[in-house]
Amino acid sequence: GANEMSPLDMAAGVQTLANEGIHHDPYYVEFIDNAAGERVYTHLDPGTQVIDRDAALETVQILKGPIYGGGTGRRAAFDDRRPAFGKTGTQEDNTNAWFVGGTKQLSTAVWVGDPRAYTAMNGIPAFSARGYSRVQGGTFPAEIWKAFMDPAHVSVPVLDWDRPPPPERPNARLYLPGNE
C-alpha cells in the first residue's frame, strides 16, 4: 500500500486479529515494583472490540495458510508447528519487505528496508550470502520473525483459536462486465 506504517502499527493491527477482534493499544511498561517489592503500577487495558469475532477468526484461519499451507511465509513456521498466522509483504522494486504475524500470546512485525529512502534490496552481499538475490517478505523478514518467535514461545503453552463458524450464506460469484 501507499500508507506509511511502522512495525509498531503493523504489530498493533495483527494483535487485534490474534485477540479475536479486540484491540489493545500498544504499551511499553507492564508493571512497576518499588524497592520493597510492592507493585505500584500495573498496566490495565480491557481492550475494545473493533472487529467482529467471527470475522477475526476467519481471517486468522485464512492467514495460517502463508505459514503452514505452503505459502510465502513457510520460512516462519515454528519448530513445534504451534498454531500461528502471518502475512508477507514486498513493496515494488523490493524497497520494503515485511513479515507480520502472531500466536494467541504474541504478535510481531518485522520490516526490512532503508529508513532513509526507497532503496531496492537486490544483490545486497549480506542477503546474497544467505542465498537471496533480492529480499521479499517471505525470505529474510520471515526468517527474522521465526528467529525471534521460536525462542519467545519455549515456555509458552501451545494454544489455537476456535474454528470460525460456517458462513451464513453460500459463496456467490460476482460477474464484472468486460472481465469474463
Short description, anyone?
The chain is α+β, with helices and mostly antiparallel strands and 180 residues long.
Topology:
Layout: H1 7-18, E1 22-23, E2 31-33, E3 39-42, E4 48-49, H2 53-63, H3 65-68, E5 85-90, E6 96-102, E7 107-113, H4 125-128, H5 140-152
Antiparallel strand pairs: 1-4, 2-3, 5-6, 6-7
Number of strands: 7
Distance between the termini: 27 Å
The low-confidence parts are none
Range of strand content: 15-25%
Mean pLDDT equals 92
Strand order of the largest sheet: 5-6-7
Total helix count?
5
Shape: globular
Explain what you see.
The protein has helices at residues 7-18, 53-63, 65-68, 125-128, 140-152; strands spanning 22-23, 31-33, 39-42, 48-49, 85-90, 96-102, 107-113. It is α+β, with helices and mostly antiparallel strands. The strands form three sheets. Strands 5-6-7 form a three-stranded antiparallel beta sheet, with helices on both faces. It has a two-stranded antiparallel ribbon with strand order 1-4. A two-stranded antiparallel sheet has the order 2-3. A hairpin with a 5-residue loop joins strand 5 and strand 6. The longest helix is centred in the last third of the chain and has 13 residues, at 140-152.
Tags for this model:
7 strands, globular, alpha+beta, 180 residues, three-stranded antiparallel beta sheet
